[in-house]
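User: Good morning. I'm curious how zinc ion would be positioned relative to this chain. Could you predict the structure with it bound?
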Amino acid sequence: MRRQNRKEEYHSLVEFEFNDFLDPKALISELIAKIGDLAKNKEFDTFAIGFSWPKISEEELLELKKSVQYKLIAEIESKYDKKVDFEAYGAYFLVDFNKKEVLLRLKSLFVKGNYCKFSRKIAQTTHFCRRCRGKGCNGCTNGLESEESVEQLLALVFLPELAAMQLKFHGAGREDVDVLMLGKGRPFIVEILQPEIRSLDLEKLCEKVNKKFEGKISINSLEIVPKSEVAIVKNNVHEKIYLAIVSCESMIEIKKLVLNKKINVSQRTPERVEKRRADLVREKWVTLLKTNPINEKEFELELKTAHGTYVKEFISGDNERSTPSISSMLEVKCVCKQLDVLEIC
Ligand SMILES: [Zn+2]
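Assistant: Good morning! Here's the predicted structure, ligand included:
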């Protein structure tokens, strides 16, 4: 991950004037006032404080530390009714004597939920176009893979509601832009950076998102979780139920497909993702649940798959990189015309 610069990492900064480090009383009163300015209207109960000490003689430094450190903490506690807690703080102040700045970093808030996506034009997260790398070309929208993303839509509501600076989206896996996410939805966690507001009515927030983006996305089951949940959500293994529209090159005998029986499938990394992932053969399984003919060459297929199965490739066969496939079982070339995730199990 890119290292954040100071302005992103810290909520805000105020400069302080103080020059004479050897007048601790005046120094502390100025620092207290600056910290008060920074902390104004921000919700936190506990704080920690760090110092970047000035380049002065060892003797002077020792004197400065002794006179400032503990007094400052005690004054913040009594004046602003906050508790110092170096292990689990809601706010971290950094007093930088060299740059003459006081900075504040607010602890991120992690909100977990599920999302559904009802549009084939909305991606999960915001991605730059791979062809032009964000410059903008004929194949993209202003340099982005898709005009909108779940991440970006959530940010439009979450950031102003929490008076926060940034939102990072962590999904339990992902679906392609053109795949709908239905059913109970896909688990996600949004990490909200520098939230001034922490006391949230999650139900109201949920309603707000669902009303504003009706027909595009919806979210449910919001809860505040610890940071450790991010890794759990990202690494969870899910079986999935899909609904595909399969389109075949010629007439088909749909009866050739055996339903409700686990089919072991070997999948070599698909051609379309080859550049991003290692070229490996992965052993997966698929169970065909239902077929429903649309016409002589097309049918709906409901299928359950192991975590990480490439469904579009299981249907087409991906030039025999995926075996068996719907194409090989029907002995006719097939493609996945449309795909929806019906349920994440
Ligand atoms: Zn482009």
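Residues 58-80 form the longest helix (23 residues). The mean pLDDT is 91.
Let me know if you'd like a different ligand tried.
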